[in-house]
Amino acid sequence: MSVSGFLENILEELRQTADLISDEEAEVLIGRILESEKIFLAGAGRSGFMAKSFAMRLMHMGLDSYVVGETVTKGLDKEDLLIIASGSGETKSLVSMAAKAKAIGGTVALVTIEPDSSIGKLADITLKLPGSPKDQSGSSYITIQPMGTLFEQTLLLFLDAVILRIMDKKGMTSNKMYGSHANLE
């Protein structure tokens, strides 16, 4: 198959995932984002990259957002939100992070394939995204893509849709967001 053929298959898989995402769960997450003093994002590997891109867009909107583990990240307090992106919901460092955030009194949200995972059991807010786990044996969701790729792509697009929904709720435009864009590049 050609590259354009693979791309068409990927786009079709992504079209199918959009129909499987709960608007109700998304609205709960959006509401909590807008109520939070600070918003922390965490994920490992490619999911972590998607979480970082979301943190950047939240910052562009004027929200106080941080990526866990960066040197300029503040401490989490009771009125804060930790959003974890993890397909499996079992990444040990993220499980530990969720437990610590809960112990501090923060709110934990998980965006995942597996809401019943270890992090899912700790989370106050869980949002299920379709996708295949890295180990696709026994998975009910079939994809042509390797490992957790479909989840990671869906995660990026979902988080971009969340940004658009928040922009809509706040009456914000892309032009206004450019005021917070990096300008020393």
UniProtKB/TrEMBL annotation:
GO molecular function, one term: isomerase activity
Residue intervals of the SIS domain: 29-172
Presence of the UniProt keyword Membrane in the record: no
UniProt GO BP: carbohydrate derivative metabolic process
Pfam family of the protein (one): SIS
Keywords from the named record: Isomerase
Domain of life, source organism: Bacteria
Keyword Zinc-finger among UniProt keywords: no
Family: Belongs to the SIS family. PHI subfamily.
The protein's name in its UniProt record: 6-phospho-3-hexuloisomerase
Gene name in the database record: hxlB
